[in-house]
Amino acid sequence: MTLTPQERNRVAVNFAIEEGGPSKIARIHIVGSETFTEKKLIKQMRLTTPGWFTWYTKNDQYSKQKLQADLEKLRSFYHDQGFLEFAIENAQVSISPDKTAIDITVTVKEGPRYTVSGVSLAGDLPVPEEEIHKLIRLRSGSVYSRARLQTSTKGISERLGAEGYAFANVSAVPELNKENATASFTFYVDPGRRVYVRKVNISGNIKTRDEVIRREVRQMEGAWYDGTRIERSRVRIRRLGYFDDVSIETPPVPGAQDQVDVNIHVTERQTGRFMVGVGYSSSESVTLAASIAQENVFGSGNSLSLGLNTGQSSKYYSLAFTDPYWTVDGISRSIELYNINYNADDLATSKYESDTLGAALSFGVPITETDTINFGVRFENVDITLKEDSPDAYIDFVDRYGNQTDNFMLSAGWSRDTRDDVLFPTSGGLQSVYTEVAVPVGDLTYWKAQYIHQWFWPIFDPMVLMLRGEIGYGAGYSGKTLPFFKAFYAGGVGSVRGYEGSSLGPRDSDDNALGGKRKIVGNAEVFFPLIANDNSVRGSVFFDIGQIYQDGSQSDNESFKYSAGVGLAWNSPIGALKISYGYPINKKPDDMVENFQFQLGSVF
User: Fold this and answer.
1) How many domains does the chain divide into?
2) Domain limits at 60?
3) Quick one: CA torsion of 457, 68, 537, 585, rounded to 10 degrees?
């Protein structure tokens, strides 16, 4: 510190600070534990001694806030194991003389482990007592758990909230028998007044029209308060994909004891997308793809997209428009026009060229909050050009049906979406069944069916496990075959990573993939944020499995393939960046490998 005299009887005080390096945690001791080892208890804590990843997590640097959070984790751990009277007697932090090392010593008192001797209800019960008992997770004879106790009180409160009792109070009072180390619990229920919703107010939407948000709201004005409907409204609004955040508050109406307002505040995100994709494979080298889309045209909730793919093997042009509320009942309508030019010369598949002009009209009919039935009609004109090295199966097909076919397809399907978010789901699932039938009014008659099921589970917060399964099958009918250009393929991004796109399954005489009539693909992937409390940067590890089957005549090629790898996704300032590296586990010498791929796009 230096003092510098100034005029008019003033002085300047300057502090020179030398920060030095951060102090690291050298040791953590937990004293007083008899039931659990010190190592097991330290694993419950976030603070730790230096390790492989602490250079990134900084958890080896002392923080008072982190220590307090860790002490609460220890309490929760012991309370969940039945130690109702557990207490932390002291938490001492000492620093070395050179201020580079910190020792943390935590002294605990476990007390006895309690079991539950009985559970009872008291108070005013506006719903049947049997229903409330089903919501209580504590059971007589089981070890006491604070987590189960909290889950029970929360479940009862939510059940009462669904009946309009927004301010219900549920408290569990224990009665301890210290001699026998048992505890009985009485759940006191005070529902309060039944509450009604006066108004639903929406704010924060600058571009999006009120009606687009309001039609997703399941809590009606004038009806009694329903907590489950309000939460369902939040999920549906968030799943629109138009908003970064959706928050709902239910403040009481001034001067009214039985009324609340539902205030919905949204934070809009950019819904226009310009996507540029770049891929690299051992056979096709660099491929480019681009698309431009607006998911919320003029704030109406309608989507409009123009897509093109300039890959070396295929060029895809499409124009699609979707109105999710074509009718007030929520029936959606989609219109699509497209042109696909395909050349398999540089791919792992058998060689041919095709030029497809298509148009489609489809509708989606919601039957529940999560279930939708889809049906539609599609027309395609397909022009086939064979190569000198095209397989015999392709030549036989063209000889029988000609180079050009007009095909009319009817489609139907069902989907169920219970995900909590569209972009970064952490729980719920998405499953769908889709069937397509080419009817006899066209040149071809065939059918295809596909089932996809995707699950999301939070594990070891904030990690999320994703499991995905896909099964497809197709065949011809009325004496005709499944067209080779409608066969199932697997391999590559969105399938079995580590193998080149569409390279799995039976081969022709030139060792090119023919596709098949049956497809099985499974994916397991664990996502985790690379920055705490920020989903914009996520890493992942994955395991993929897949098979393309035709008739079993090529047992080696028609067997299952496996791969594993890592991925990175980043919503960067210039757009969404995705990188993945897959390693084929049971690769054979003639398999086509595609290890690395990345994609970059931007929003507007």
Assistant:
1) 4
2) 24-109
3) -50
Report which of 501, 378, 355 is spatially closest to residue 434, judged by C-alpha positions. 378
What 8-state DSSP symbol labels residue 61?
B
360/435 same-domain check = yes
- Of 318, 319, 320, 321, give the one whose Cα is nearest residue 301: 321
* pTM (predicted TM-score): 0.70
- Examine the domain organization and report whether 446 and 464 are in the same domain: yes
Beta partners for residue 599, in sequence order: 277, 578
- Residue 438: phi and psi, rounded to 5, are -80, 120
- Both 281 and 255 in one domain: the answer is no
- Comparing 500 with 216, the larger pLDDT belongs to 216
CATH number at residue 168: 3.10.20.310
Do 206 and 179 share a domain, yes or no? no
Both 174 and 217 in one domain: the answer is: no
Amino acid at 464: V
In the numeric block, which tokens belong to residue 469? Answer: 């399964």
Q: Within 10 Å of residue 36's Cβ, how many Cβ atoms?
A: 18
Cα separation, 76 vs 70, whole angstroms = 10
Sheet holding 243-249, edge to edge: 196-203, 259-268, 243-249
Q: Residue 163: exposed, middle, or buried by beta-carbon count in 10 A (0-12, 13-18, 19+)?
A: middle
CB atoms within 10 A of CB 161: 22
The CA-based dihedral angle spanning residues 143, 146, 149, 151, taken in that order and rounded to the nearest 10 degrees: -120
Amino acid at site 223: A
Please state the φ and ψ torsions of residue 370, each to the nearest 5 degrees. -120, -10
Of the pLDDT bands very low, low, confident and very high (cuts 50, 70, 90), residue 53 is confident
Q: Which of 282, 326, 335 is nearest to 304 (CA)?
A: 335
| pLDDT confidence of residue 134 | 92
Which helix H or strand E contains 135, and what residues bound it?
A: helix 129-135
Q: pLDDT of 455-482, one tens digit each?
A: 999 987 788 999 999 999 999 999 999 9
